[in-house]
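Handout, page 2. Input:
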Amino acid sequence: MTLKQYLNEIVNFLKNYLNRSKAKGYTLGLSGGVDSALTLALLLKATKKENIHVVIMPIESNPLDQKLAIKQCKKFNIKYDLIDLTSSYRKLKKDISNIHPLNKLSESNIKVRLRMVTLYAIAQKENSLVVGTDNLDERYVGYFTKFGDGAADILPISKLTKGEVYEASKMMGVIKEIINRAPSAGLFLNQKDEDDLNVKYRELDKYLLNQKVSKKDAERISYLHKISEHKRKLIPEPKNFKR
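Output:
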């Protein structure tokens, strides 16, 4: 199957799931990055524009994130909501830190979870489904926030490697400025995915495609996969209570 054919499979998957769910549409957080931009392009093939609720949610963000997200919406001629969560984030962080001081990672993950709270509030009001934007690389190594961007009703691009996401984005009309950006979760200034992962996406792609990578990279990827297993599993429960 070619990538183009598989993208059609994703579109049909989105169409069919929406029909089965009896929901009225999809809700998507647009970050200014390539994964969410590609996801939006696929949604536009799967349903009408009025059924897609696009939300841009800056939180102490790089202004370029918002600028590119808006530019992508304008190219696709789709409406969007802009909800700045910075004040909400700062208030919550302060309230928690007054009692329990947080570290940098826990503070950053508040941002991701606030965005997901916002998406689900909108989705519930609109009777729509929240769309996740994790790709195969991110799912495999757990590069997502548990109950943050890892929480969604559907994950349409979760079987595409990062390289395939870029290739598909070129085919689907994602703007060049987004495609040419260095991948970043955008949680703090100058953050880069590959710095956090300590492995290059191209090497992670090779590993997932059963191609040769260095021993160092293979060990790193295997380690990340192992320690993030809890993110990909259902919440543990005890055995049934036999009354």
